[in-house]
Amino acid sequence: MNTHTSLVALGDSFTEGMSDDLPDGTCRGWADLVAARLAALTPGFRYANLAVRGKLVRQIADEQLAPAQAMGADLACFAGGMNDVMRPGCDLDAVTGQVTRIADGLAASCGRLVLIRVIDPSRRMRGGARLLPRVHRLLATVDALADKHDAVVVDLFSSRVFDAPELWAEDRIHLNAEGHRRVAEAVLRALGLPPEFDWDEPVPPSPAQPLRERVAADLRWARKHLGPWIGRRVTGRSSGDGRSPKRAELLPFE
């Protein structure tokens, strides 16, 4: 097993760790969990997380790539593109071009590139099946870049476990703490670390809710989450506007 000395993570809310909330109000997420495990194995392990919620892949390239390249980390992990894919006017050529720009830049400046094949939205999200042609194009780009750069690939798309609503937060868009824990284990396994548990093991289903309760939950979700999300899309705003990365420097992780 290789000894990993540092990690920089780039991306959006998925990598920032949104909805895996700590008592102080900050978010943790799978990348922090990966860093914690690697730090336990390597004294002085350093970690940076440049991801910011709501970012499109062009913004990730413009705002996060150069700082990450300057760090020259042993591992550079990138996941992104789903915010673009979910938008009606998505320009797939532009998106895949920016994904390529990020992967090429990280591979040239960091020790090992880690790429993530995004979670399949088709069975979990309403209308998710309509996104599949775009998602498959994104995956094909990631696969080609992984071959080009001999990257570590974390294949979440092929897993059915993330179909389980028990792994998702109230907003139905972001993983909850257990979802992030499973992604972290998948990343660590891809890096060659011995398993601590089976991240792909099916989740025991929650008891079925009566129809009335399901309808009420759907209405609450639409009011609290769907409406504001649509409002941001219409007005061109983002949940990440004005936010800075939670770990903007490559520093020892404790």
Short structural summary:
With 254 residues, this protein is an alpha/beta fold. The chain has eight helices and six strands.
Sequence-ordered SSE layout with sheet pairings:
Elements: E1 6-10, H1 13-16, H2 30-41, E2 46-49, H3 57-71, E3 75-78, H4 82-85, H5 92-109, E4 112-117, H6 132-149, E5 152-155, H7 177-190, H8 211-235, E6 247-252
Helix pairs in contact: 2-7, 3-5, 5-6
Pfam families: Lipase_GDSL_2
Protein name: GDSL family lipase
Biased composition (Basic and acidic residues): 243-254
Provide key terms for this protein:
43% helix, GDSL_Rv0518-like, globular, Rossmann fold, SGNH_hydro_sf, alpha/beta, 254 residues, 6 strands
Number of domains: 2
Level-2 CATH architecture of the largest domain: 3-Layer(aba) Sandwich
Order of helices and strands: EHHEHEHHEHEHHE
Radius of gyration: 18 Å
Pfam families: Lipase_GDSL_2
Protein name: GDSL family lipase
Biased composition (Basic and acidic residues): 243-254
Organism: Actinokineospora bangkokensis
